[in-house]
What we know:
Helix content: 40-55%
Shape: globular
Order of helices and strands: EHEHEHEHEEEEHHHHHHHHHHH
Strand order of the largest sheet: 1-8-5-4-2-3
Amino acid sequence: MRSETAFTMDTSSIKFGPGVTREVGADMARLGARRVLVVTDPNLARSEPVSIACDAVRAEGIEATLFDGVRVEPTDGSFQDAIRVATEGRFDGYLAVGGGSVIDTAKAANLYATYPADFLAYVNPPIGEGRPVPGPLKPLIAVPTTAGTGSETTGVAIFDLVELHAKTGIAHRGLRPTMGIVDPDNTRTLPPMVAACSGLDVLSHALESYTALPYHRRPAPESPALRPAYQGANPISDVWAARAIELVSRSLVRAMADPGDDEARGEMMLAAAFAGIGFGNAGVHLPHGMSYPVSGMARSFVPDGYAPDHPIIPHGMSVILHAPAVFRFTAPADPARHLRAAALMGADVAGAGPEEAGEALAGAVVDLMRRTRMPNGLRAVGFGPEDVDRLVAGTLPQHRVTKLSPRPADEATLRRLFLDSMTCW
């Protein structure tokens, strides 16, 4: 096997500042769009961020059509609803106002409306064909309203494939939004549990990209065009991930407790973008891979702050429930890096040896989980040991992320990690 010797650095253009949503019309006009699809979800359709964004676009003489049919935690069906609207509307620009579900849906609508194909054509293998994005897409501006996914910087669109009861996605650097408008004012009305789940997703993004398989231990691609968006930990992604870990660890609880804490909300928005730049180039690994079947198999659980119209284990929650067990497992691959991550979270690791690295990082994560009132493991969201075989089966196809684990995780290992995640403390 010839090992990789190069990595690339790609991200969206980012504009940050309180009130910058009001500038989105000028940004869209600069990109040449005249007929724009505004994508959001039903909960946000009448919200101030959507109203401000639509008014700003129309003030530039741009036609704006509102699509508010995004499903929180999208499915293949909800993606296809948006694709149908985008295809019929022949739009030359897209504006996503919402959380990761909204931004990911806009990415998919843009892709399939621009380059029509069977739905599984662009979906990650082995579930889909994994075709690369054929060429440039229409301009997409993402306006996040949660400090969470960092989707405004990444080339990833995640959805539930209902038939398999598991999440999968589309990953290609060509999917990245043209611009991310990161406006702290847009998170003022986040319910505390929504803020917690989205913030812990940021944390796990950053920790996973920081501890991922190093890029030079990945097989080299057959050609530069086949170099994946998720390349493994590298010196540039490390910078963004490390800063995101620090910001989340000091600001998440404050942002939950006081929506008027402008500094904390601003730092969480920056952390989401920073982590997105980090994991959008390095990738994530086992906590995300294991989270996908958990979200896809949600039965009756609905946390506070989420619409009760369907069972939901929010993405950030499903990810962080596995993080303590995973980091105990991956720490032997690079104890120093795991200790450094724990220190970035504020843990006292002075004098800690390599054998303590996993527990140090797991303990720091558990502490923040408890402070943000996360459920205590998979049992608390409706799973038991009898579900482990199905959870493992749903994780095994997630090659895009599981193969970036710094330690290989076979079927038996995954089974043990799911059992260890039944309770976190």
